[in-house]
Amino acid sequence: MIDVNNLSKRYGRHTAVSDISFKVGKGKIIGFLGPNGAGKTTTMRAISGTIPRSGSVMYDGHDIVSQSAESIVRSGIAHVPQGRGTFSELTVEENLRIGAYVRKDSIESDIERWYKTFPRLEERKNQRAGSLSGGEQQMLAIARALMSRPRLLLCDEPSLGLAPLITQELFAVLKSLNQQDGLSVLLVEQNANLALKVASKVYLLETGQVVASGTAEAIAGDERIRKAYLGG
Amino acid sequence: MERLLQYVFDGLSFGAIYALLALGLVVVFRGTGHLNFAQGEMAMFCTFIIWQINEWGVPLVFAVLIGMLFGFLLGAGTEATVIRSVAKKSPGGVFVVSIALFLGLNSLASMIWDRSEGYTMKSLFPNKPEDFVRILGAEWRYKYIGVLIVALILMGLLFLLFSKTKFGLAMRSVASNPESARLVGVPSGLVLAASWGIAASMGALSGALVGGINGQITPSLMFSVFIYASAAATLGGLDSPGGAVIAGLLIGVGEQLAAGFAPGWIGQDLKLSVALISIFVVLLVKPSGLFGSLKVERV
Amino acid sequence: MLNIKEGSVTHWAIRVVGALLLVAFIVYIPTQSETARIGQFASGFTLIIAAMSLNLVLGYTGQISIGHSAFFGIGGYTAAILIRDHGWSPGYTFYAAAVIAFVVGCLIALPVLRIRGAYLALVTLAVAVLFPTLLRWRKLDWLTSGAQGIDSVKYDELPVWPILGELKGRDGRAVFAYWLGLLVLVVTFVICRGLVKSRVGRSLVAIRDNETAAAVMGVNITRTKVVIFGISASLCALAGVLSTLSSGVVTPDGQYVTLLGSIIFLLIMVVGGAGTLSGPIVGGLVYVWLDNTTRGIGTDSKGIVGYIFGWTNQSPATLILGLALIVIMLFAPTGLVGLIRTY
Fold first, then answer.
1. 20 to 30 A from B14, CA-CA: which of A161, C212, C257, C299?
2. What is the CA radius of gyration of chain A?
3. What is the dihedral of CA B194, B200, B205, B209, to 10 degrees?
4. Are strands A152-156 and A77-80 parallel, antiparallel or unpaired?
């Protein structure tokens, strides 16, 4: 589905991402693990087009590395940013509607679907989004991204700051979307265990480079890697 | 009693004009985080264009509409070219550029239309001495009523744009969180340009109304209106459109009352000072104004 | 555009040649040019001083101010009132103006401290527009002489300076204004340089770039901002005094007493190069040169050029500077001085 090669991004003299390559297969959930500053968020931004980058990002046979963020959204990639990026002043429902900005067809059925999936959002649909709890905002952020009917979802640290119960709910939703709709997901997580449970393949990043990769079982089972990168 | 009413009536009309221009300031500030120092001069320039088109034979109503369209293009064009490039390099520079525009537009207008006594501008509304309505003893001139109605209609249209249309939602989303707006595919560039365009357009109408009331236009037409509008935007809250309207009307009425009831102290000389001092007081006491949010300001 | 290695021979050569040229130029003007030209330079110095004062606040500390015309006016009016109504001799008015402006500047800066960005711009806008309005207020007529301003600020005894000998009449006054202006300019430059190169100067830049970080590093933000604003105000007032002394008149519509003055100071500073010591100087000289050149064009030329420049109200220099500003902000935000970079 998406094939990244030699992706690089420098901020002045600091190299955030150095020449990395990876693939996200169609209908798969891929995990991106690693400590802070490893370049995970930068990589996501590079794919969604929100920062200038160099290298090649092949999506559906085209190289989207120089495309604008708007057109990338139109081609079916949605990015749920770290920290959720809620439109605090807009209502919950408005957040959903703006998520579907690039679509020209009727979105009412999608809104209904996400209200069914996340009933708490429906309860608060006319509330100011900024007044929602962290967990609710995260659900809103994911629903908002899904409103554009993406084929690839980029999820940046969805569990950050969330209670375990909510996190489980969220990941269950992601997993079911992946199984039922064939949604491909690129998941960035600091919480390695969570990621290893849902992903089929995992890449490990450290200081801007891929230091290891493999199936979730392999990585999870590898003592050495666990100790070195995943805190045992 | 009639005097009080008179001041209120007149004040509402002037206030509506201030509110129009203030709305322009707020739309730009909310959408882009910048203060358009040239808002008044853009309005003045468009007013001259309206006058010129009218001189060439186009009926005033159409001239005003064309002028508003010109304003939209002027504002959007300025943003898309100069402002955007400078904003990327230095956010503080945008203010400096808007000052340069302030000067440039004023100078340009002075060059093109250089009669020192100014030019006669017709009013959109019936303007003969007998054109007024008597309410409880006070005279409410047609042209003032007309100004108030037109301004309110336009503000209503703007409100509808923001709350009921997809593009309006897009504009509000950029104002709320520009990063996320890009992530959902909102064309930020278009939105920014549209913000400036709408603001300039409202300014053009504002200028035409002022010209109609004064009867006379010169390049210094909109400067004091700009000050009043800045006071209104500040008082209402730089990011609150509703606040700008309410504050504009308040300032309009307040100014008439102050000048009318205390001519010895305030009178014509210091009318403007009331607005200026209120800017001071608001910014020192509550910078976010009456209805604004406490968001951190960008330069 | 030009990259010169600091400390290299080229760098030294440029500085030495530059200094020599500067000195030659400075001495040439008053001795060889006509009175009008000398007068222009004298007012140019005034502008440069004002731009330098604004630079302290805007270029180095990063606080927007379009209210400096008020301080210019405070200086100008202080000098006029003291000389005409109280018989002071011109020299001491500098000190009085500086002190008054410092106090007013600090008083204004204190409450305005936490305001930033667009809000600060609005406050200083209010100051700039309020000041001339206050000057015209009938209730203050006894002090300011209202809308007509104060004229006939005369001082008959021009001091006898060693090298220049006795200066008499209009020509003498022009030369006197020139050298006095130059003197105040040098003093201002030295003060600014001293401030900027010292620890204070570095804390200014720290405040400009990241106030929170600066506070954490131990910079007393409040005190620094207020004092710098006060100093900036007094320097600007000095320029105002100069202006009154050389023209003998000060009015509420005076070119630099109104908002337009603040804008011109800002333009000069940015075009020359904000946040640099020589920026305002370059900017001021460019403005004077532009003013010179374009003023002539208006009355003589025919055709398009005459149409473009033949107008009465403002100097075309202002328009051109405004356009130049846009160009500079687009392509060289560090100003003209920034085009020659030393590394």
1. C257
2. 17
3. 160
4. parallel
Domain assignment present for B235: no
Local structure of A1: helix, strand or coil: coil
Q: How far is B294 from chain C (nearest CA, A)?
A: 12
At residue B89, what is the residue type? K
- C263 CB neighbours in chain B (<8 A) are 99, 102-103
User: Is residue B285, in this structure, part of any structural domain at all?
Assistant: no
Lowest mean pLDDT among A123-132, B262-271, C249-258: B262-271
Query: Which chain C residues have a beta carbon less than 8 Å from that of B35?
Result: 117-118, 121-122
Q: Distance between CA atoms of A104 and A92, rounded to whole angstroms?
A: 20
For residue B55, the enclosing domain spans: 2-221
A230 Cα to chain B: minimum distance (Å):
30
User: B165 to chain A: which residues are within 8 Å by CB?
Assistant: none
Does B185 sit within 8 Å of A88, measured CB to CB? no
What digits encode the pLDDT tens for the residues C273-298?
Answer: 887 888 888 888 888 877 777 665 54
Answer whether A touches C (≥3 Cβ pairs < 8 Å).
Answer: no
Residue of C110, C114, C122, C133 for testing the chain B interface, max B β-carbons within 10 Å? C122
Q: What's the rounded Cα separation, in Å, for the pair C48 and C51?
A: 5
Q: Which of B179, B184, B293 sits opposite A101 (nearest CB)?
A: B184
For C6-14, what is the mean pLDDT? 72
In chain C, residues with a C-beta closer than 8 Å to the C-beta of B282 are none
Min CA distance, B207 vs chain C (Å)? Answer: 21
- For B91, nearest residue in chain C (alpha carbons): C117
Full-model pTM: 0.84
Residue C59 near residue C241, CB atoms below 8 Å: no
CA C205 to chain centre: 21
Question: SS3 of A82, please?
Answer: coil
Tokens of A66: 């120089």
Q: How far is B187 from chain A (nearest CA, A)?
A: 6
Question: Is this complex's ipTM strictly greater than 0.90?
Answer: no
CA B93 to chain centre: 23
**How many separate domains does chain B show?**
1
Specify if B9 maps to a domain: yes
Which token pair is C334?
Answer: 């560090």
Buried b (16+ CB within 10 A) or exposed e, B68-84: bebbbebbbebbbebbb
> A81 at the B interface (CB within 8 A)?
yes
Better-scored residue on pLDDT, A230 or A105: A105
Q: Closest Cα of chain C to B288: distance in Å?
A: 9
Q: Identity (one letter) of the amino acid at A176?
A: S
> Using a CB cutoff of 8 Å and minimum separation of 24, what contacts does A12-18 make?
A15/A208, A16/A42, A16/A208, A17/A42, A17/A43, A17/A46, A17/A53, A17/A208, A18/A207, A18/A208, A18/A209
Quick check: C307 pLDDT over 60?
no
Dihedral sign for Cα atoms in the order C50, C55, C61, C63:
positive
Please give the residue of chain A at the shortest CA–CA distance from B176.
A87
Is C116 within 8 Å of B297 when comparing Cβ atoms?
Answer: yes
**Measuring CA to CA, which residue among B187, B189, B107 is closest to residue C326?**
B107
C270 lies within 8 A of chain B by CB: yes
Task: Tell me which amino acid residue C185 is.
Answer: L
The pLDDT tens digits for A125-178 are: 898 998 998 888 999 999 999 999 998 999 998 888 888 888 888 888 888 888
The string of pLDDT tens digits covering residues B246-265 is 999 999 998 888 877 776 66
Q: Beta-strand (E) ranges in chain C?
A: 2-4, 340-342
Q: Which of B181, B183, B293 sits opposite A79 (nearest CB)?
A: B183
Option in A87, A97, A102 nearest B180 (CB)? A87
Q: Which domains does chain A have, with CATH numbers?
A: 2-87+145-229 (3.40.50.300)
State the amino acid at position B10 in one-letter form: D
- Confirm whether B119 is domain-assigned: yes
